[in-house]
Amino acid sequence: MKIILHILLFFVLNIYSSLYSQNPTVTVTSSDVAFCESGSATLTVDFTGDAPFNFMYKIDGSYLLGSAAQDIYSTSSSLDIADINTSTTIEVVRVYDNVHQYDSDNPMGSGVAVTGESMVVQIDEMPTPSAGVYDPICGYELTLNGTVTDADHTVYWNEQTGVGTYSDINSPTSTFTADQEGDVTFILTEINGECTATDEVAVTFQGSPTAKLISDGEYKFCSTDSDPDIVSFGVEFTGNEPFSYVIKNNTNSFNQGPSGLNDHVQYTVTSSDQYYIYSVTDDNGCEASAEDITGTQIVTDLKPTVYAGEDQLVCGSQYVLQAQLNSGNSGSWSSSEGDIFDLVSDKNAIATFSDFDLKQDVTFTWTETEPEMGCSDNDDVVITFVEYPELVIPNVNDEICEGNSTYMDYTLTGNGPWNLTYNDGLSTQPIDGIEIASSSIEFTPTFDQTMNLQSQTIYSFTRVEDAMGCVTDYNDEKQYTVLVDEKPIADIGELPDEVCGKILKDLNPQTTIVDGTWSGEGVFNTDEDGITSFTASDFGEATIIWDVVNGACNDVSDQRTITFKKVPYPVNAGEDKIIYGTLSFDLNAAAFADDVPDAEGEWTSLELADIKSPNEFITDVSVDDYGIYNFVWTTSIPGLECDDWDLDDTVQVKVKKLIIPTGFSPNTADGYYDYFKIYGLENLNHTKLTVFDKRGKLVYKCEDCNNIWGSEGWNGIGKDGSLLEQGTYYIVFEADELSEPQKQYLIIK
To answer: Which of 106, 428, 447, 712 has its CA 20 to 30 A from that of 741?
Structure first.
């Protein structure tokens, strides 16, 4: 009986365990690991549930069964995974226990699914750094040219031998400065996670030479004596001998060497100069830097720098010489005409030379001597002495009638050709390029309108200049007087053959000795300045006459026949307007009156536009872009300049893009934005508007909307006949002229 009870109890307990036991769990307890190139990892897991346990894991896309715990009471398991050479994640996907057992026929359908339990295995790639390749280095500085696999890796240099400093030890292209000559081995290290690689290179630093010019001081000589002059100096070097070097002065280069640590050179000199070491190359082919080359040999020629002055042309017989004298030196003058100086030792001596005819050249020599070696030199200056010009005129007067000419005789002396200057009481006048020494000059004086019957003109000669630039000025002693008698005239002056309108302005006849009178087919008006205007009785031809009487002189008159024409005034180019949605429109100017048959008109644009018929009142216009365009309608009478008339008018057309409002407020009765109106709709064909609510439902649609809406627009009534609710809608507008449908939101309030 007890045995039967035990058996029953066993079955009951098993059934209870099967019905009420919890699902097993698995937890990965091993940490993430990393290896260089490849490695082996150990996956460790802990279980809960009813032992014994087992689990399935995923690696590189493959599902594998893990080893079960050996002890049915064990809750942990370790799994070794070898030969991992790619970064991967080991993920536990299912767990099995005594209740939820593994089914080999349905492994992914048995057990319990697991998420979030994994171990990461990182495989780092071995980097390949390169320390670079280098020839032997002249000097002590090297810019390294190392390369690394990845700039984000850890990188650093260290030299195995030698002493020096890096500008940036972590840069593959760091600059290294050696402290001394010799070989240096550079090691470039690159670290990528668990992988470390190095590369090394040996570089020879050969240093660079130095040089110093050794001088006994400034070398002085006189190049004007007959003795040869030679400068010599020494040169000292440091570095790897032998040395090749170049000496330079201000004009030449001298190749020297090979030389040991000391050398001595000498050169023939002919002028002031300086010698210096330009370049040095040692036995290794290394050149000295500029800062390592020192010393200069100064060579000074004591020959004075002599300047006697610039060649000059002098009017008259006296000149102040303009030599320069160097401080501490002495000088003296001599000339081709002997001793003509007030003081020969004065650099600004006064030379007086009067024994010449018209002009003559005289050479002056300035000799200067320095006191230290008695070195001297000289310079010449040529002075051209020129005789002053003179004008001779008769001391007589002349009397002429207004409009006639008079002739004055003259004689000129000096160097021709000559230029004369005279003043006629009003202005100064020149007479240039006179070639003949004795001739006459023609004068035509005008009558002085401030005088009565007779006036006087005095010609005062103020200046004569010859071909050498020599000038003689006069002060009222050279005068020629001419008396001028006034001649009566009757000259209306220049008048147009045709006039715009009935008024002819600015009738101002030439000056007369008495007043004149006007007559003609119209009315004359004279202002306070004596300027007369004429108003014709009617359009067409009218004759005006100017009559003058002067004592015994017969009546003198002048007359003109003028045609007075009606002008197209006022001008109206039409009203300014705004055009939407089209680049073509029309201009409409007011037509001319019937009684202006000769009038013409022309359209022009202040901006770029194509005017189809520029001479028609009404014309089509097309433009290339939207904007503001100003068109000018200009009228005219062919052949006439009507400057006093405002015969043009401007109309402004604002060409705007199609404007589709983003909102309107129908049925508000406030008079603002009550209708949805597309500006430019009237310029489009086959228009179509579709309106959707926020859920995409069609609430309104119209085709050929411009015919349906009229001039006001859409009142917000939907397709069901009721006013659309307040809110945001989506609209699509189409027309033949649009390249694509216009889509936007519309707010109704």
So the answer is: 712
Mean pLDDT for the chain overall: 87
Q: Cβ neighbours of residue 13 under 8 Å, at least 6 residues apart?
A: none
Residue 537: what pLDDT? 85
Pairing of strands 376-386, 350-352: unpaired
Type of residue numbered 486: E
In the numeric block, the tokens 């009067």 are attached to: 354
Q: Classify 383 as helix, strand or coil.
A: strand
Would you state the pLDDT for residue 69?
47
For the CA atoms of 274, 279, 282, 288, what is the dihedral angle to 10 degrees?
Answer: 110
Distance CA 609, CA 467 (A): 63
The two structure tokens encoding residue 513: 């000795």
pLDDT in tens, 500-549: 777 888 888 776 666 778 888 888 888 766 688 888 888 888 888 887 65
Across residues 447-476, what is the average pLDDT? 88
Provide the pLDDT for residue 505.
84
First to last CA, the chain: 92
The candidate with the shortest Cα–Cα distance to 49, out of 1, 12, 97, 88, is 97
Which long-range contacts (C-beta less than 8 Å, at least 24 apart) are formed by 28-32?
28/92, 28/117, 28/118, 28/119, 29/76, 30/78, 30/119, 31/119, 32/119, 32/120, 32/121, 32/122
> Token digits for 394?
């008769």
Q: For 344-397, what is each residue's pLDDT tens digit?
A: 999 999 999 988 888 999 999 999 999 999 999 999 999 999 999 999 998 778
Backbone angles phi, psi at 17, to 5 degrees: -65, -40
Give every CB contact of residue 15 below 8 A, 6+ residues apart in sequence: none
Which positions ≥6 away from 196 have C-beta within 8 Å?
Answer: 36, 189, 190
Cβ neighbours of 217 (radius 10 Å): 8
What number of H helices and E strands is found in the chain? Answer: 2, 58
The letter for the amino acid at 108 is M
CB contact at 8 A, 539 and 546: no
Cα–Cα distance for residue pair 42/37, rounded to 1 Å = 17
What are 478's two structure tokens?
A: 């050279």
Of residues 87, 171, 81, the one with CA closest to residue 121: 87
For residue 96 the two structure tokens come to: 């099995």
Please give the Cα distance from 677 to 658 (Å, whole number).
Answer: 11
Structure tokens that stand for 65 in this block = 């069964």
Strand 296-301 to strand 219-221: parallel, antiparallel, or no bridges (unpaired)?
A: parallel
Strand partners, 386: 315, 359
Length reported for the chain: 749
Find how far residue 678's CA is from the centre of its chain: 44
Is residue 16 classed as helix, strand or coil in its secondary structure? helix
Amino acid, single-letter form, for residue 551: G
Place of tokens 């037509």: 591
Q: Using CA atoms, how far apart are residues 555 and 561, in angstroms rounded to an integer?
A: 20
DSSP assignment of 630-679: EEEEEEE-TT---TTS--EEEEEEEEE--B--SEE-TT--SSSS-SB--B
Tell me if 624 sits within 8 A of 694, measured CB to CB.
Answer: no
Q: pLDDT above 90 covers what percent of the chain?
A: 56
Q: How far apart are CA 428 and CA 282, in angstroms?
A: 81
Q: Could you give the CA distance from residue 397 to residue 597 in angstroms, rounded to a whole number?
A: 63
**Distance of alpha carbon 615 from alpha carbon 611, whole angstroms:** 9
* Residue 577, both tokens: 């307007």
